[in-house]
Amino acid sequence: MLIHAPYGGAQDRNGAWLALRQAQQAGLVRSIGVSNYGVHHMKELESYIHELEKKEPGSGGHIDVGQWELHPWLMRPDIVQWCKQRSVVVQAYSPLVRGTKWGERTLAGLAEKYGKTEAQILVRWSLQRGFVPLPKSVNADRIEKNFGVFDWELTEKDAASLDTDMYEPCAWDPTTSED
């Protein structure tokens, strides 16, 4: 279960975390985490978790999973590094960039080279970067093709050719909220 966004201020974020933690302790959910949190939000939450642990060991929990818009045009290295250092599973929503990059030279070239769709290239890229991609489609054929990524890999050189330092979200971006 995830807290969807960091809006509402520290007190509300802490209260939401406490509710998730209580649900986890009651056995209602296995894993808890955050979505769309910036590193500053996660550091704040980590401090709150440590406060809870000081008061009652075992009460604070652990951020198990985090979910962000992630793709080659929005790689979020600060968030990814923070999560990897703490063993937080990173889920990537909008890994297909809502189709806005179809035909982009590098992506299209890799699709042709591997005989795969551009969506498959992006899902494979996500997997090779250690993310859990969450591609979205309502088309049965596309959904089936999106699963066709486990019997091949991009070379590291080809995967790296997609990496950018761009900041191009295709959805909202609450990670920047100072709330």
Written overview of the protein:
The protein has seven helices and five strands. It is α/β, with parallel strands linked by helices. Helix 1 packs across helix 2 (about 40-55) and helix 4 packs across helix 5. It starts with a strand and ends in a 17-residue tail after the last helix.
What is the alpha-carbon Rg in Å?
Answer: 18 Å
Give me the secondary-structure category: alpha/beta
Span from first to last CA? 22 Å
Strand count: 5
How would you spell out the order of helices and strands?
EHEHEHEHHEHH
The percent range for helix content is 40-55%
Strand content: 5-15%
Low-confidence stretches: none
What general outline do the C-alpha atoms trace?
elongated
User: What is the average per-residue confidence, as pLDDT, rounded to a whole number?
Assistant: 97
Number of helices: 7
Strand order of the largest sheet: 1-2-3-4-5
Any key phrases for this structure?
alpha/beta
What's a quick, concise take on this entry?
With 179 residues, the chain is an alpha/beta fold. It has helices at 10-25, 39-55, 77-85, 105-114, 118-128, 140-146, 156-162; strands at residues 2-3, 33-35, 65-69, 89-93, 132-134.
Would you spell out the secondary-structure blueprint of this structure?
Layout: E1 2-3, H1 10-25, E2 33-35, H2 39-55, E3 65-69, H3 77-85, E4 89-93, H4 105-114, H5 118-128, E5 132-134, H6 140-146, H7 156-162
Parallel strand pairs: 1-2, 2-3, 3-4, 4-5
Helix pairs in contact: 1-2, 4-5
